[in-house]
Fold this sequence. Notes:
The chain has helices at about 15-25, 30-45, 50-60, 60-65, 105-110, and strands spanning about 25-30, 65-70, 75-85. By secondary structure, it is α+β, with helices and mostly antiparallel strands. The chain is globular.
Amino acid sequence: MVLDDVPERxxxxxxxxxxxxxxxxxxxxxxATELCKLMYKHFGREYAPNWMTRNLVQHTNELKTYGVLFxxxxxxxxxxxxxxxxxxxxxxxxxxxxAGTRSSENVYLPLFEAGDGKxxxxxxxxxx
Length: 128
């Protein structure tokens, strides 16, 4: 009997990171470039604006279940805890320690290992 060896798919943690960012920020209005800068501030990595927009569109319904709504073009992200099925709990729990502080190193590796920054569209800017 021959069995196909299917590689294990990594969990997509994009929605968790946006949720956790918005739990802190509550509201963001600006361009994809500005959101990338805010993500850099929180997670210590650079992100491509087109990648950010594409992922926001692809994760619209999932983000809505976490209380995060947005509109495209000028991004308008709003966090509403009453619409958050997780009630404000951090979703990527490894980024919070028992004291409630956050560590960006724990988010970076599993969240953005999709590419090495050399392939167009992998989500990591060349300068990062």
